[in-house]
Amino acid sequence: MGYNKNYACIRGIPILVRSLHQMSQVPGLDLALVAVAPGEEEGARQLLEEWQPRQFPNLSWNIVTGGKERQDSVANALARLPENTQWVAVHDGARPFADPELIQRVWDKARETGAAVAAVPCKDTIKMADLEKSVERTLDRSRLWAVQTPQIFRPGLLREGFSLAREQHLDVTDDASLVEALRKKVALVMGSY
């Protein structure tokens, strides 16, 4: 079994703690639901209790047991959101360098559009392969973006996306894909390489 990178330290501070610190600096963001692997709940709780006073004193948080895939973990956390939640920001705990300004820019765009994600233009040439792993075609790099987190949505929109995923047995690698499956637009906000 591998080591969870969220608990690795950068200059003595766990990556997950750094991520929560960054999020705690955004006005209006007041609750974090931290999805952790089954069996890691108590260790994560102890870690966050230890670091909260120094790194994110004004941020409330709860531990949520994650699922088999990322999609399952987000669904578990979404089910635990308070009913009066107006916005949900999905963020990977292992991305501690998403600073408060980036999070705020994505949130501001989501307020305009209902859904927004951090992303950066692709610098690499991307090839689509066929089943034999031969190049089928080269994609137009000028239209390709590498999606990051945070991804911010109106909760109802994200819940509707998860409902569709269950009905149609969709497996996705990010939450924006669920909203896209509803044929709703997701705005891109310049992230950071």
Strand order of the largest sheet: 5-9-6-10
The count of strands amounts to 10
Mean pLDDT, to the nearest integer, reads: 94
Number of helices: 6
Tell me the strand percentage band.
15-25%
Shape: globular
The helix content is: 25-40%
N/C terminus separation: 30 Å
Query: Largest beta sheet, briefly?
Result: 4 strands, mixed
Element pattern in H and E = EEHEHEHEHEEEEHHE
pLDDT < 50 stretches? none
- Class computed from helices, strands and strand pairing: alpha/beta
Description:
There is one protein chain. The protein is α/β, with parallel strands linked by helices and 193 residues long. Helix content is 36%, strand content 24%. The chain has helices at 15-24, 41-55, 70-79, 100-113, 155-168, 176-181; strands at 9-10, 13-14, 31-36, 60-65, 88-90, 115-121, 127-129, 135-138, 145-153, 187-190. The strands form 4 sheets. It has a 4-stranded mixed β-sheet. It has a two-stranded antiparallel sheet with strand order 1-2. A two-stranded parallel sheet has the order 3-4. Helix 2 (41-55) links the parallel strand 3 and strand 4. Helix 1 packs across helix 2. The longest helix is centred in the N-terminal third of the chain and has 15 residues, at 41-55. The model has no long low-confidence stretch (mean pLDDT 94).
